[in-house]
Structures are given as C-alpha cells and as structure tokens.
Design a protein that fits this description.
With 437 residues, the protein is mainly β. 8% of the residues lie in helices and 46% in strands. β3, α1 and β4 form a beta-alpha-beta unit. The longest helix is centred in the last third of the chain and has 11 residues.
Amino acid sequence: MKRVLAICLGGGLAVPVLRAGEIHVRADAVPGLEDGTAAHPYRSITGAVRAAAPGDTVRVHPVAGGYRETVDLLGLAGGKAEAPIVIDGQGSELVGSDPVSPSGWSADAATGTYTRRDLRTKRFLMVDGRILPATKSAPSALKEGQWCEEGGGVYWKPPGGKGPEAFSVEVCTRANGVQISGSTAHLVVKNFNARAFWNDGYNIHGEVRAIEFYECNAREMGDEGFSAHGSAEVLLDGAVYEHCQNGVFNANTGGKTVTRNLVVRSVRGIGYGFTPRDIGVEHTLEGAVLLDCPIALRVGGAVTVRDVVVLSSGPELHTGLALDHGGVFERVAVSGENVLPIKVADAPGFHRFSHVVLNGRRAVQIRAGRPLAEVVWFESSAAAEGASSEVMARAGEGNRRFPLLSTEAFLGMLESGELPGPSPKWVRKARDAAHGE
C-alpha cells in the first residue's frame, strides 16, 4: 500500500498513526489496476508523485523503452523539511521523443530531399540517436544531413544519398524531462536519465525551495541539461550532461544554486553558466569536468568555483572562463591548444584566482579600460610559455612558466602536485572523461 496504518495505544485509546510509505511506478503495468502498490503500480510518474504525501518515496522501476512522459510537478505542494517527498528513478530513462515511421516521406529525386507534413518537431529531430537542430536553409539549399521546416512541411536530406528507411528517426515532442514550478518545497529527485527533450532535462521555475537533485543525467537536449529560473533554491549533486545546447545554465533572478560533481561533455554552447545580469544570485560550483565546450564557464558576480578542470581537444576555438563582474575561482585548470583560457569583460567587480593553472598557446583576453592589475589577479597560478605574459607580469610570487604540454602530461603534473590546481580526484575524473569513460 501507499502508506501503512499503524495503531498506537495511548491513554487507553486507539490512535491511528500514518507512516511514510512507498509508491511504485511501472510504465508497462496492467492498466486500470493502479493503486501504487508493488503488485499494482502506477503507470505514470506524474500521477504517482501527485498521489504522494510528505515522507513518501516514489520508486520508479526501469522499463524497456523508458518513460515517454514529462514528470510534470508544476504547482505541486511538495513535502516538509522533516519529511520530503523522494522520487527515485532507480536508473530509469525519461524520453522526450517519439519514433517516426520510415513510410510517409515523399521523395524528390532531383534534390535528394524527403518531405512530410505530419510532424510537430519543435525544431529538433533525432537521427540515429543524435539530436539534429533544424537549419535556416531553404529546402532547395539543404546539404546532406540537414533538415528544415517550411510551410508546415519538414524537409530532410539524408546523408550518403540514402533514404529515410536507412535511419532511426524520432521527433522531439516533449519539452522537459522533469519540470517544477510554483511554491513547491522539499522534493528529492534522484537517479534519472533524460534523453531527447526539445527544451531541458530538468527545468525549475517559480519560488521553489529545498529542491534536491542527485545523479540526474541528460543527453541530446534541445536546450539545457539543467536550468533553474525564478527565485529557485536548488541543489544539483551528481550529473553527466552530453550533447545538449548547454550543460547547466541557471537564469534565476533570486534564490541560489549549488552544483556539485558535474561532468559536461560536447555541448553546443556553454558547459556551466548563468545570466550575467543576475549578479545578486549566489551560485556555487564544486567539482566539475567540462570537456569540449565552446564556452566552458560563463560566470561572474556572487559565484564560487572550486575544483574544475576544463579540457578542449579539437581544433575549434573555445573559451575556458568567460567572466563578468566578480567571482572567486579556486583550484581551476584549463588545457587546450586552441582554448582562450580566460576572457574578462569590461564590467565592475574583481575576480580572485587561487591555484589557477593554464596550459595553452593563447593569451588571456581582458576587455577593460583600466590596467589588468585592477581587474584580475592570480595567486599560485601558472601559465604555459607564451600564453599569458601580461598576466604573468602581474601575478604574485610562486608563479612559474612551463612549456606547452599535452593534456595527458598536464593532467599528470596536476595529479602529482607538481602544478597547483584541482584535487587529484577531479584530475582523475577529467582523464576518464577525456578517454570517453
């Protein structure tokens, strides 16, 4: 049962006591018998959570094909400080897309494009497991692998001169994996994997308080893996975000966020960041690997960043730290031959760096109308030969130059303590991420 009714004897009277219980969910359960018990679980995660009371745990059982639903908690009251509602995905997958039949496409032999008019795409298709944003090209100008929308139709030019039947195609139909808003408080969400939503994996709005996410991963998102808005106060502890627009991007104008144990890999935009205008919001990032992100960190204001490794392995020009306003950065390492390690905007506030290590050829870029020493300073930092002479000239004692290193050699020197930087734990995590583990 959802809750267990116990009887306590007090003063000779039988007193009912409601104990926290478990509510079970299985998407493949028999319809019509749902009561939340293990024998008759709910089929919908949203339905189960809305039936929960403070102290209850919703146990979501993994099923083949995952859960093709948005866990919609908009307006949910939530739990209590001493009795939160816990939603345990137990490794379940939330899926934001639906399969597209290979039939139904009309071929244009002259251009190699295929057309259909029965899809509501929200700007994203999934082709062989990878999210594919729409292009702005006209149908006649599509290159192989591209698609666009025009006049209510979807136009796609499959690669290699192949037809749609050679690919697995899905359309992203759902906005978010988990969405929360209103004045919800005291929720714990853990152990989920979100895939192929056209907006975010985990989307938080409103005046939510004491919302905690643990091991909530996402891949192939149209926008963020995780995003907080409004005046949200949230904790994200343990997440891997891959092939999203941004990994974590918080746009809350109040409240605060704490992010820990984060790995972001191969996003199209920002690894971790927030809107620079919201400088009064407190953000903390503790422990992260940001791998192959066009902008690894876009931060400033009331931010504290500790134990972060930024790596870039490709030929594209990436930015390690894009900074606005002020911030505290401790034990941060940036490595990559084509990485602009630090870019500071012409904005008020000071940045404090401690044990920041830069390994690359490009110089720090300061867009400021005043001397660098008034904008940024380093403590126990190091910069590769030729990379940041202006910074090195103003850095404190204990700084030293070293030749440009391979990422593997750089990580080895960090792990051994030969270079001052992130803790060995996060250096090892960075090495694993770089090796695809």
